[in-house]
Amino acid sequence: MADLVPLLKAEHLTMRFGGVVANDDITFTLQEMELRCLIGPNGAGKSTFFKTLTGQLVPTSGTIAFRGMPIAGKASHEIARMGIGIKTQVPNVFNGLSVRENIWMAVRRKATPRQQGPAVDAVLQMIRLTDYADSIVATLSHGQRQWVEIGMVLAAEPELILLDEPAAGMTDEETFHTAAIIREINQTRAIVVVEHDMEFIKQIAKRVTVFHQGRVLVEDTVDKVLADSRVRDVYLGKKVAA
Amino acid sequence: MPKHVRLALQAAGILLAIVAIAVVPSVIELFALMQLTLFAAMAVLALSLAFIWGFGGILSFGQTAFFGLGGYAYAIAAVNFQDSTPAILLAIAVPALFAAILGYFIFFGRISDVYLGVITLTVTLILFNSVNSTSGDAYKIGKALLGGFNGMPAVPTFNVPFDPSTVLSPEQSWWTTAGVLLAVFLMLRLLLALPAGRVIVAVRENEVRASLLGYDPRLVKCLTFILGGAIAGLAGALYVNWGAFVSPTIFSLSLSAEIIIWITVGGLGTLLGPIIGCVVIEYIVAYIGSQQLLNSNLVLGGVLVIFVLLLPKGIVPTARDLVLRLMPQNKPKTNGPPVQSAAAPHPAGAE
Fold first, then answer.
1. pTM for the full model?
2. What is the per-residue pLDDT across B8-46, written as a single tens digit (0 to 9) for each?
3. Where are its TM segments located (chain B) (predicted)?
4. Which residue in the set A97, A132, A133 is minimally distant from B205, CB to CB?
5. A184–chain B nearest CA distance, Å
6. Could you tell me if the ipTM is greater than 0.95?
7. A228 interfaces chain B, CB cutoff of 8 Å
8. What is the percentage of chain B residues whose pLDDT exceeds 70?
9. Domain locations in chain B as residue ranges
10. Are B235 and B49 in contact (CB under 8 A)?
11. For residue A130, what is the DSSP state?
């Protein structure tokens, strides 16, 4: 039954900022448990798309359905409670709180007080920040703060996880670890990843959607997309006859 | 500092405060006691802004709006009922209700921080001017004559609950006022240690992240604002009890600005700091007022400039940093959430 209704379905989604059309008639479907990568050059509308999905922006027109329920225009916290978690492009963490408190904030929405401690420790272990649990987040490196945010998203146990450039600012080793975590959580959850790093995409991707100038340019398996001449042209900045 | 040492220190501090409050009337003169009672009432007002600004991230330029409403609500009710018990409750309820209405429009209307400052400031001015223009016999609420600019004299002071014939002595008034100060302080400390309090701080830290985790920042900020209004209203009742008098100057902008100075001097983001800042500044102002050499506003401005330049964190955070630096194991103090720590021992210098 669940297979009939897609996890996420956006139809004819358009987002205008004055004269700028950031998202232009996007139709996007994601199945349960799917792992999807979104790629595209800067300004293609990927982050705007994520913002409309999480209620940070209200789309100009179009619909978004999460398991059949309309979510376009709902407040961020309502969408979050329905089970969509996001790691934003610019890290959004609680800078003045400790790592443990950051994770705990996400855990306590669902876990009973007794479960909270072990749940926080499990997430700390997964993001490898157990040794930094009591450090104030503002004192950590950029890469570590990325981890804190990923940890918060995981700790909230959402049904759908959106990751906007999770590997930005990470070393190769950390990127590899991120890819491993993404594959692991994909065993139980659907994930959409925005990323520029092609090596990273190759490590995790199954299906890839390419955004260009606010529209969906191609959507196919990773091999076919990377072989597509239009995609290469987009990334090299050439004009595309789409 | 280990957790149990910190708890023991805190318990010792509370005990010390209780003893100090109890014995003060027997060691100082009546005039000084009255002055301390006033400072304690003002310190409750300081706590109200310390909470919403330092922990809720809401900088209200018009905390005196709630202070004044509390004072007037108390005075009007006390004159009518001739019993302070329901009057005190109204002094909490009326400003809280007003804060709820104002907060609803500010926070659910997603008004930015700058406009929040402008709106709270304007509301204070509106209240000041409205109450100021209530002279004459026409402006009466029940038996209470509002009195316009002259205010309301001879307001009944606190009595023993439900016993209007037994009015509190100055000593008992001090115990009540200082006791309320301690109780509000402890209540806020407790709240901030509870999950609800951590959510308030999290919303201050990052509203976007809080909402993306499923917390409603509008609601959290509105409730914080209401609690701040209620505490300021209670402070208003304590203030009116101290002087048995209330006038529109209770809404004044200079007092609103002074609260901000108390907090800046004492330390934003602490509860103890604003109390200390309030008492120190008010003492200095009162002392300067008793002689003719200097203008107190000039000194107040000077003190603020010195603190912003030399001690931008304020007295209490600076002192805390100093103590922690002098301790052998210099691990920064963190206000951890009440979760069980099963983590491995923290390596030194990890931060």
1. 0.89
2. 998 999 999 999 999 999 999 999 999 999 999 999 999
3. 32-53, 65-81, 87-107, 114-131, 174-201, 222-240, 260-286, 298-316
4. A97
5. 22
6. no
7. no
8. 93
9. 21-251
10. no
11. G
